[in-house]
Amino acid sequence: MRGLVAILGLLPALLVLGGVVHAVDERAAPATLQVAEADEWDGLPSGAGREEVYSLCGACHSLMIVKQQGLSRDAWDETLVWMVEEQGMPELDPDSLGLVLDYLAAHYGPDRENR
Ligand code: HEC
After folding, report:
1. How open is the CA angle 72-52-43, to the nearest 5 degrees?
2. Ligand 1 touching residue 88 (CB < 6 A)
3. Number of domains in the chain
4. Which domain holds residue 11?
5. Are 70 and 111 within 8 A, CB to CB?
6. Are 52 and 31 in the same domain?
7. Relative to the CA of 71, which ligand 1 atom is closest?
8. Cα of 13 to ligand 1 centre, how many Å?
9. In this structure, which residue's CA is closest to atom 37 in ligand 1?
10. Could you tell me if 60 and 6 lie in one domain?
11. Mind listing the pLDDT tens digit for each residue in 36-54?
12. Mutate-to-test residue for ligand 1 from 53, 56, 61, 62, highest number of ligand atoms within 8 A of CB
């Protein structure tokens, strides 16, 4: 009888514990959050320059056309000169251009893994 009382006495504590574990479970969902975040940026990895690439380059064409490339920084530079001269992309100020080129070369360079 004593034992039963003790177990019953523990019940509320177990319930509370269950609640805590559940709450932790809900907070610990970074995997789904990350997927949602990548979706939001059309798969562009996070980093300085992502916003610029996303809004600027995505304005005219799919970002797929950007993501499928693997170019050196110089080749990206030439691509963007061509984008400005032949495709009507607004010319970037040197700071923004540097930011975008660094981003592209870092994530979509010739030796990138996520091809
Ligand atoms: C004003 C519109 C415009 C903007 C802004 C723009 N592009 Fe383009 N881009 C084009 C057009 C149009 C084409 C297709 C040209 C063709 O295939 O004849 C193209 C094609 C490309 C290609 C494919 C080149 C190839 O070899 O087929 C790449 C890579 C590219 N753009 C990268 C970018 C990047 C990176 C940005 C942002 C920094 C950007 N573009 C911004 C209009 C734009």
Report:
1. 75
2. yes
3. 2
4. 1-40
5. yes
6. no
7. 29
8. 61
9. 57
10. no
11. 666 789 999 999 999 999 9
12. 61
